[in-house]
Amino acid sequence: MNPTDAAGALLEALLAEAQQWACDDAEDREQLDAIDRADTPHGKLALLQNSSLVPSHLASAIADALVALDPATYSPTPAPTTPGTSMADPELHRIRDASITVVDASPDDNTPSDVYEIQVFGVSVLIRRRAQWGPATDVPYIHIEDQRDEAGLLLVEVNNSGEHEHRTGAEETPA
After folding, report:
1. pTM of the shown model
2. Is 113 exposed, middle or buried (0-12, 13-18, 19+ CB in 10 A)?
3. Can you tell me the distance from the alpha carbon of 39 to that of 88, in angstroms, rounded to the nearest whole number?
């Protein structure tokens, strides 16, 4: 079996799994219908990854396998943008087990600044500039979120000021 056929079979297995996980409610039915209507295999995969129809770790693992087997079909193909132009959809870049999403500022939807989200090891880091914050303007804004389900410890350091401990998950306590 060639890689393209193997990738197609893997996507079909993921679609079948999504149908098994789906409930009879309207939201699940709408998600399945949107996936069926997607124009490209990459579009189907993106909708599956952003749905609640399959566990996120399963969708991520299969997405990584699909990109490895057939990158031409399953890799995101963002169009290059020039500075100052607006994008309807964010660019997604996968690097090893990490992803970086870039969304350009858009006056049309009041996006306040370019947004960069980095996801690695189950941790999401959102970076953007926040305009008109106090007397200064364009203050860097960083949001860190541990998206793992289990309890743990997140160590954060800012400007070499020493590590700050943040408990995460079920046992969250202020650090």
Report:
1. 0.42
2. middle
3. 17
146, 169 Cβ separation under 8 angstroms: yes
β-bridge pairing 152-157 and 91-95 = unpaired
From the DSSP assignment, how many helices (H) and strands (E) are in the chain?
A: 5, 7
Which pairs with CB-CB distance under 8 Å and at least 24 residues apart come from 90-95?
90/115, 94/64, 94/67
pLDDT at 167: 86
Backbone angles phi, psi at 24, to 5 degrees: -90, 10
Looking at per-residue pLDDT, the higher value among 163 and 50 belongs to 163
Per-residue pLDDT of 29-56, as tens digits, reads 888 888 888 888 888 888 888 877 877 7
The C-alpha atoms of residue 55 and residue 139 are separated, in whole angstroms, by 36
| Cβ contacts of 167 within 8 Å, gap of 6 or more | 151, 152, 153, 154, 173, 175
